[in-house]
Amino acid sequence: KGESYYQMKNYGQAALAYQNVIEGSPNSTKAPSAYLKQGMSFLQLNKGAAAKQRFNELIRKYPSSPEARRAKQVIAERKL
């Protein structure tokens, strides 16, 4: 669901859908992606602080994931 909303540029709904994955399936293989995409959704909504918080949580919980590497890149690129 989140991915569909994101592709349609409905970032508010996407962020909510990703939150459902984060809360409902924290140990799922989809969780790191949900953290990353929720952070990206927050960026699209001009909520940089929320995005940074989500990215840092992703990096802390899944430090060796490709999503954590991407989150670090986004933090650096956007100077969050």
Descriptive overview:
With 80 residues, the protein is mostly helical. It is built from five helices and no strands. Helix 3 runs parallel beside helix 5. It is globular, with a radius of gyration of 11 Å. The mean pLDDT is 96.
Give the termini separation.
Answer: 27 Å
Number of strands: 0
| Radius of gyration, CA atoms, in whole angstroms | 11 Å
Strand content: under 5%
Query: How would the global form be characterised?
Result: globular
* Helix and strand sequence: HHHHH
> The biggest beta sheet, please?
none
What's the overall average pLDDT, rounded?
96
> Unreliable runs, pLDDT <50, ≥5 residues?
none
**What is the tally of helical segments?**
5
Q: How does the helix and strand content classify structurally? A: mainly alpha
Helix content: over 70%
